[in-house]
């Protein structure tokens, strides 16, 4: 066990914790904007909305304060729109015209692959989150009641896909050690600009823990276990989306990207093995919070740690 590496990784988690007192202002701005958009959607579409789910990394408790998502997933009734494209266009048009006129902070609305991206400027800070519209499946369908169809806004080949946000959230519920490991991998990919979807990181990490004969103790040992698993399996693994078993999430990476990831992880692990201080390069603490300040606040911060790991409660409404 490496005391140094464990202590450093704990510092990384502490300085990237989204529930730090210092982050409360920005987090509150996100929540305020998200809730206003949610209210506006309910007012616009009324009973045609079955429910709106809080999704994204914050709802999964895998958020880091340098990059996090407080997204919304809107469940529309099956008969509200004739087509999924009509649904997607309707939500985009409403947010880009009607709602944008009401909120001067909203500076950009854009169509994305399955969602509508919103960018607000609040007191000089950017607040970004996505709204994903989905339509309930036909009533005679034998699928789960929370299954929805999304519109895939692809220029060359527009289509659709099924998903279930509830199942994705349930998959990670209560998995504290996995969440810490996921956060650390997110710190790496954020600081080293590696294009790797967070959902893929989550599924890979949980698979590594599930496949382990025995999960080791210590932050570094668990992180190393997950990184080695990803390195050894990324080129061949099939990862089913909990919300759609026909969706292999590992396909979000090309063959070339998988090999690049394997090489990156192999090099990282070798360098940290040779020099443990390299861990500070690959997994840096958030520079906003100097180590000395974190140490001074540790006693007060640790008293909150149990509460913060339980927040936010998963919301399905």
UniProtKB/TrEMBL annotation:
Annotated Basic and acidic residues bias: 289-307
Keywords assigned: Coiled coil
UniProt keyword annotation of Chaperone present: no
Keyword Coiled coil attached: yes
Coiled-coil regions listed: 251-282
Region (Disordered): 289-317
Name the record gives this protein: Nucleotidyltransferase
């Amino acid at each position: 066990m490496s005391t140094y590496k464990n202590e450093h990784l704990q510092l990384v988690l502490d300085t990237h914790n989204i529930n730090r007192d210092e982050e409360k202002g920005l987090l509150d701005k996100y929540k305020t904007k998200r809730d206003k958009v949610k209210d506006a959607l309910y007012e616009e579409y009324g009973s045609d909305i079955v429910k709106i789910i809080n999704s994204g990394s914050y709802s999964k408790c895998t958020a880091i304060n340098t990059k996090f998502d407080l997204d919304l997933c809107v469940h529309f009734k099956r008969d509200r729109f004739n087509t999924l494209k009509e649904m997607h266009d309707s939500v985009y048009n409403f947010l880009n015209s009607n709602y944008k006129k009401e909120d001067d902070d909203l500076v950009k609305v854009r169509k994305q692959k399955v969602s509508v991206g919103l960018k607000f400027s609040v007191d000089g800070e950017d607040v970004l989150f996505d709204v994903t519209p989905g339509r309930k499946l036909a009533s005679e369908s034998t699928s789960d009641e929370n299954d929805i169809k999304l519109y895939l806004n692809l220029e060359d080949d527009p289509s659709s896909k099924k998903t279930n946000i509830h199942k994705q959230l349930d998959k990670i519920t209560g998995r504290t050690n996995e969440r810490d490991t996921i956060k650390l991998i997110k710190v790496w990919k954020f600081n080293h600009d590696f294009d790797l979807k967070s959902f893929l990181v989550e599924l890979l990490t949980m698979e590594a823990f599930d496949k382990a004969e025995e999960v080791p103790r210590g932050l570094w040992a668990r992180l190393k276990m997950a990184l080695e698993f990803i390195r050894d399996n990324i080129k061949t693994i099939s990862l089913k989306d909990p919300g759609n078993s026909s969706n292999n999430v590992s396909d979000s990476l090309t063959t070339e990207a998988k090999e690049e990831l394997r090489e990156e992880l192999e090099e990282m692990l070798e360098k940290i093995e040779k020099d443990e201080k390299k861990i500070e390069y690959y997994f840096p603490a958030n520079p906003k919070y100097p180590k000395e300040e974190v140490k001074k606040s540790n006693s007060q911060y640790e008293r909150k740690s149990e509460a913060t790991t339980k927040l936010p409660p998963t919301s399905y409404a």
